[in-house]
Amino acid sequence: MIGSIPMLRGLAGFNRDWLRRDIPAGLSIAAVGLPSAIAYPAIAGLPPETGIYASIVAPIAYAIFGPSRLLVVGPDAATMTVLAAAMGTIVAAYPAGTPVDRVGIAAALALGVGLCCIAAKLLRLGVLASFLSRPILVGFFAGVSLSILVGQIGRFTGVKIESDGLVPPLVEIAGKSGLIHWPSLLLGLLMFALLWLVRAFQLKIPGPVLVVVLSVVLSAVFDFQGRGIAVVGDIPSGLPNFSLPPLHQMPLDKIILGSAAIFLVSFGAGIVAARSFGSRTGEEVDANQELIGLGAANIAPGLFGSFPISVSDSRTAINLSTGGVSQAAGLVSAATLIAALVFLHSALRILPIPALAAILAMAAISLIDVHELSKIWRISRMEFIFALIAMWGAISFGVLNGVIVAVAATLVYLLRQTMFPRDGLLGRIEGRHGFFDLARYPEARPIDGAAVFAVQGSILFYNADYIRNRLTSVARNLAPETRCLVLDASAITHIDSTGATALEAVADILARRNITFSIADLSEESRGILSRAGVITTIGPENIFNGREEALRALIGNYDRAGTASAGRTV
C-alpha cells in the first residue's frame, strides 16, 4: 500500500495453492472473454484486436491497483454503446474529408475515463456510483440493448445501413430487402438460436465459445469468405504497442465531455455489479478505492491502443463459479489471451461477422432485465415511470443524449422525492410513550391547547412554499383554545435562507392569532441559519426547545406526560 493507493491488494497473502483454483478460473475467463473481446469493438466501429488488447492490459492494471480479489474488468456492451455515441459526436466534429483515427479517439477516451476516475477518487466522489439509481440504470440499459440489437441488422444481413436510431434502420432494411445476403442471415440466425438453446438448457459450455469454435470450423470447411459471408479478416499477431493517442489533433472539449459520460455510466454500472457480487461473497466494496482500480484499468487500454472498460458481469460470474480466489485469475486470463493472439490469429481471421452479430444480439438481450423491471413495477409505479423515461431517452435521443436524459431523470426523481416531504400533526395515545401521526393512528388524540407538527425533510428553496402553505393551513384550522404550535424539527436536516423566510411568515400568521410558534429539536446548523436570518429573534429564543416534551411543559403548564392536559381531552 502506497499512501491511500491500493497496490496488489487483490493478490495479498498469495500462495501457490491458490493457483490450483486461479489457473482454471483464468482459463475459463479467457474462453468466455475472447468472443466478446472480438465482438464488442464492432459496436463502436473499432477493429477486433482492440477488444483483445483491452482484455489483456486492463486486468493486469486492475490486478496491480484494484482493491478487489474477485472482480474482473473488461469490455462491456453498455460501455461500448456509450463509447460509440461519444465517438460519433467526435468524428462529426472533423471537417469533411479529414482522415479520422478511430482507434486513437477510443484510446483518448479511455485515458479520459481513467483520469475522471482518479479525479473522482481525489475528490472522494465515490458517491457518484449511486447517482444513477437502479431503476434509472435498468431502464437505460434496456434502451441501450435495443440500440445494440438494431445495430446488428447490417451484420446479420450483409446490407450497409446508413440511418441511425431505432425505427429508421428497420425502414431502411425493408426498402433494401432485395440486397439481403441470405446465407449470412441464415448463419446469424442459426448461431443466435444456438446461443438461445445453450442458455435455455443451461449447458456447461459457454454459448459464445461454442459459437466461435463452430463458426470458425464451418468457415474453414465451407469457405464462407468465398461464398460472400463477411469475416473478421486480418488480426495483428503481435502484442499491443505502447503509444499516446494524438490528442493535439482531436477536439478536446468533446473528448472531455465524452469521457465524462462514459465514466458516469461505466462506473455507476460497474459499482452496481461489484456490490451485487460482493453481497454474494461477503467482500465489501469501497467505491472510492474502486476508482483507483478502474482508473488504472482504463488508463492502460488508453496507452495501448484500445478503449474504455468496466467491471465485466460475465467474466466476474465465471471467476466466482469456477472458484477463483485472487487477481491471479485475471493475470492467467491475460496470459491466455496473449497466447491466443499469437497462435490463433489465423483461425480468428475467418470468424464470420454474422456469428459475432449473434453474440452481440444475445449480449444486448441480456441487458434487458425483465425481472428487475417487473420488480420495480411492483414496488413503485413512480420509479417504473422513471425507468421508462431513461429507456425512452436512450432510444429516442441516442445513447449519449440518453445519458443526459438518465441524469436529468435522476435529478427530477430526487427533486420529486424532496419537494413534498412527509408531514403531519402529532398526538398522543393514552398509556403509550411518544408521539403519533394523527392521520395514521385513529386512536391518537391531539394535545389540549397545543399542536405539534412534524416535517420529515429539509426546508429548501424548492419546497419552502409547500411547507409554508402546509403550516399556514394547519394554523388556520387550529382550535380557538390553541395556545402554541410546536414544529418538530428532529427530522429536518437542513434549512436554507428561503426556508427561513417561510418559517418567519408562519410565525407572523400565528402571532396575529396570539398563538406561540416554537421549534423543538433544531439541529445546530439549522439553528445558525435561523439565527442569522433573524427568525429566532422573531420567534423568541425562549421558544426554541431541545425536545417536544420540554416545549409542551414550558408552553402549556398543565401538560402531563400521559399525553393530555389535565383540563380534558380534545377529540
From TrEMBL:
Domain STAS stretches: 440-555
Keywords, in A-Z order: Membrane, Transmembrane, Transmembrane helix
Record's keyword annotation contains Lipid biosynthesis: no
Short name of any one Pfam family annotated for the protein: STAS
Listed GO CC annotations: membrane
PANTHER family registered for this protein in UniProt: SULFATE TRANSPORTER (PTHR11814)
Protein name as annotated: High affinity sulfate transporter 1
Source organism per UniProt: Rhizobium metallidurans
